[in-house]
Amino acid sequence: MSGLWPRADAEPTPGTVAAIQGPPRRLRSAEVVMRTALMNGPAFSQHPHTIDATGRRISSVYRKFDTRWQLRAGLTASMPQIPASPRKASRKFYWIFGVVLILVIVMTSVVLGHQLRNSSPSAAASWSVPTASPPKVPRSAQRGAPGESGLRGERRGPLGEADGVVPDGVTVFDDEVPAVANLDPALLRALRRAAADAANDRITFYVNSGWRSPAYQNKLLREAVSKYGSKEEAARWVSTAATSLHVKGKAVDIGRSNATEWLSEHGAEYGLCQIYRNETWHYELRPDAIDRGCPPMYADPTQDPRMRK
After folding, report:
1. pLDDT-derived band at 219, boundaries 50, 70, 90
2. Based on CB atoms within 10 Å of each CB, which residue in 45, 176, 184, 256 is the most buried?
3. Contact 264, 242 (CB under 8 A)
């Protein structure tokens, strides 16, 4: 045993060192590069494209020689960054500008569309093409001949208060309603005097019908013919526009039975008389009735000489 090992104070020989260390192993190429870098010391760090792999700023992963790609990244990490190409920067700017422009166009379209939907019809009509006005028809050609029922140019559309249609709840004191306001002034004064006295008995004079336009009167006549089946039978209830006392504003139809009963008893005191037996609601002014009483009633309008004109 002592022959195999040299003494402690003996000088080692090359053969002994080789026997202890064993045969030399082949270094890997990466290991050779790293060891060369370490052996050169500061001289190696003077190159701008290399770094000190033993520095603390480099992860320990980069010190492993068998990690080839990480070693390469560690050796090149300190290389200066190459700035982005100006061409790529300009492309990015144009792309952002295009997106912003599209958003602005879309928002503008939405706002304009909302404003157009909410615009008034008059504003929309201002863009329409003006239509030609109808030719003027002489006033004399619009009316029928004397004795004809109705007007040739009579409008067939819906009628309203302006034609004498009376809403519910109208009294003889409602001046804003044309059916009341267009009554003969003397008739209206007599009605209001009677209504004021009837109010003491808690009775109100409601107006079912007062003044009527010719169009409204003719409409009522057509409806009566349809209801009763003939003009002769309809004439017992509705007169023509040419003969009707409603069109002249000289007749009124009073509503509610308590009001007509009060008038049948006290109406003559105010010159208010029932004219037709079949129409208990129809009243006209007869000033002489205040002193002489109301005249005899006709059976219906067909017996009235005024309706035969």
Report:
1. very high
2. 184
3. no
pTM of the model: 0.51
Query: CA torsion sign, 246 to 248 to 249 to 252?
Result: negative
On whether the CB atoms of residues 170 and 179 are closer than 8 A, the answer is yes
CA-based diameter of the chain, in Å? 179
Contact 174, 191 (CB under 8 A): no
Strand partners, 165: none
Q: Which residues face 282 on adjacent strands?
A: 253
Q: Would residue 104 count as lying in a domain?
A: no
Both 169 and 287 in a single domain? yes
Structural domain range at position 66: 14-76
Integer Cα distance of 45 and 62 in angstroms: 16
Q: Is 282 inside a domain boundary?
A: yes
Beta strands in the chain (DSSP E): 206-209, 251-255, 272-274, 282-285
Determine which of 22-26, 159-163, 168-172 has the lowest per-residue pLDDT on average: 22-26
Amino acid in position 173: F
* Residue 173 per-residue DSSP state: T
With contact defined as beta carbons under 8 Å apart, do 30 and 65 qualify? yes
